[in-house]
Amino acid sequence: MSDGxxxxxxxxxxxxxxxxxxxxxxxxxxSIILARxxxxxxxxxxxxxxxxxxxxxxxxxxxxxxxxxxxxxxxHIDECSIFYFxxxxxxxxxxxxxxxxxxxxxxxxxxxxxxxxxxxSLNLIINAFGLVQTTLLTKHIDFxxxxxxxxxATVISGTIGITMAFNGFGVWSxxxxxxxSNLFRTALLWVFNTWRPSLVFSFAxxxxxxxxxxxxxxxxxxxxxxxxxxxxxxxxxxxxxxxGFYSRAKGLQQLPxxxxxxxxxxVTFPVFSSVQDDKPRLKRGVRKALTMLVxxxxxxxxxxxxxxxxxxxxxxxxxxxPCIPYLQLLCVVGMLYPVHVINLNVLIAQGRSDLFxxxxxxxxxxxxxxxxxxxxxxxxxxxxxxxVISCLGYFLNAHYTGKMLDYPITEQIQDLIPSxxxxxxxxxxxxxxxxxxxxxxxALLSAQIMTGIVLYVGICYIFRISSFMEIIEMIKSKSxxxxxxx
Length: 486
Fold this sequence. Notes:
Layout: H1 3-37, H2 40-48, H3 50-61, H4 64-70, H5 76-108, H6 113-120, H7 122-128, H8 131-139, H9 143-166, H10 171-192, H11 203-237, H12 240-274, H13 279-306, H14 308-315, H15 324-334, H16 337-349, H17 353-374, H18 379-405, H19 409-432, H20 441-462, H21 466-484
Helix pairs in contact: 1-9, 1-12, 2-12, 3-5, 3-11, 4-8, 4-11, 5-6, 5-7, 5-11, 7-10, 9-10, 11-17, 12-13, 12-15, 12-16, 13-15, 13-16, 13-19, 14-20, 15-18, 16-18, 17-18, 19-20
């Protein structure tokens, strides 16, 4: 990369990292407190609605957000048209979701889902007013503003949720937290972002971005359905409590993996789009993103799988112990997920949303087959199926990236192996502490975490791993900038 683009990318990665982990770190603490105050079945009820809310949210964006980022030259009328379209769709899908509430409650045989669905549908209208604001901040690679917005909204909404849970409001505490988070976030976006819509609208502007955005909408809908399909199957075939255990394990696994993926995706997509016509330069950027990403994600997933038992017992208490084996297996699933994101971002940045969509269809067919085979043996078997799908999906995604950039999958795997080897060595060191017979779970958890960090950082530093050293330099540079900033 050129020095200017490299500096801009590293700056964006830094602020995106702070934004995601700052907000999610606070959210994690809040979720731990709520998990100790509430019961697993109450989390299970909210998890039952996840797929319906997520599908409705996908329609609001309609792929136009990514189209706005991918398009090189956008006009104010493009942004205004998408803004008003989002609001219209927000009201429409919220109304449809409310109408579908009795059917959803009947499907799960849980009458309480009717008012819960109607209440949570308000999130769709609230979010519609902030989507363009967020998209433009991302297009301009401004994650510093998003950091302020996310942290403030999360703290306020979390306080509301915890207060209600402490006072016996049960599942409605989770609803209030969700609504509060989106409401305060949208309001703060309007406070901190100077963009304002004008009274202009153009169907022509929407049509221009529709070909690209519609395929991403279709792909996004497929992905949303199948990201949540396990919640539907488990919620239908098993109890709300079993779904609560699975959703809590999924939430713990997704905290690091989704944040790492989200950070890199939000930065790499606009950066990849900006150099989409320079294939050698794009390949170097993809390679750098992959190696840096797995250097962080592999040790986090391996470490999380190993410390799963003391982590759950210390943070969530004994009542959540059944989610431990789910968490350990889901960490294996999560190891490759950020790598999928990078490969798929290449397709989108190249304008190949058609290929992206076809790949998504193929992978979803595989998921249906695997679920049909595994569900009869229980939740554990279904997670093993997810591991198989993750491996197959990586080979499919990497195959097309390799063809486009002359970066074949064999070369990608060679770039991934060093980080996997180092993370495995770290994992063995952490696992060995299990045989020290430390009785106190908090002491064991603390010892394992500290050992893992020291061991992995030490190995990376000794062998001068390039991605690691680049992150260190970026942190030093930022520390210098903060010290001498005006």
